[in-house]
Amino acid sequence: xxTKLLFTHALSPLHAGTGQGIGVIDLPIARExxxxxxxxxxxxxxxxxxxxxxxxxxxxxxxxxxxxxxxKYFGPDAGDANVAEYASALQFSDQKLLLLPVRSLIGTFxxxxxxxILSRFKRDANDVMPNSIALMVPTIxxxxxxxxxxxxxxxxxxxxxxxxxxxxxxxxxAEVKNWADKIAKYxxxxxxxxxxxxxxxFCIVSDDVMSFLVETATEVSARIRLEDDTKTVKDGSxxxxxxxxxETVLYGMVSASKIGIPKSNNPSGIDYIQPNDAMQQVDxxxxxxxxxxxxxxxxxxxxxxxxxxx
Length: 310
Fold this sequence. Notes:
By secondary structure, the protein is α+β, with helices and mostly antiparallel strands. The chain has 2 domains: 134 residues, no CATH class; 121 residues, no CATH class. It contains 8 helices and 16 strands. The strands form 3 sheets. Strands 1, 2, 3, 4, 5, 6, 7, 8, 9, 12, 15 and 16 form a 12-stranded mixed sheet that branches. Strands 10-11 form a two-stranded antiparallel sheet. Strands 13-14 form a two-stranded antiparallel sheet. The chain is globular, with a radius of gyration of 22 Å. The relative contact order is 0.24.
């Protein structure tokens, strides 16, 4: 098996919904049951990647060959007659929250994370590539404090103001700058402008504060449906939907396994897809189609995301 980290950077608000809400928000975003942290389901990532791969190959290989290659690497469609004969060579995990952009009184916005989020990112990254992250995760004992990499851009020298929160800025931890640089390198790779931009707006808050922000700092929009003739609001057609804000950063894993598929010219024989070959298809896809659309409301510009493969 071959595994890499996959990063998603939201270029527009991202609505990966649950279908129906039970509170004030009619269409909430998907959240992890235990932590309450937002996530992008792996099924959405795989489905969009599959469609994008098919479109990419249609331009270079033609329709029939493109279809064959898509089924080969991403597995048969649900309605295919041979759907039970073999699985996909590629597996996509859920995309977990890594950085949440939060409105700031100074510097417009700040990319916020927490010790728990960094701890599990470190665990997952080291599972993919052992010892790839050796940084210590800083501990915040006072929820009024936050660790910043560069206080000049996001604080007045003493305080960071996030939404309605007034936090005390602490730039004494060297590992905070190292974390910012490490994530920026994973995410923006050779783009020095955005790597520097992330480092200057990086902030670590306590897990308690992060729990508050993921509930209150998401984007909630009122939507309506109009009558075709009168262009007035249709009765019962006002609803509220939630989205992760533009600039949200998520991460997950994509894995490639050795899978046996029936030979096209000999149903009793087996062809094997090698992990390196399957992973190369994902690499080619992301280099060619860096921007993809995830989640719902795509026709109104939601869910436009930039992908990065480690």
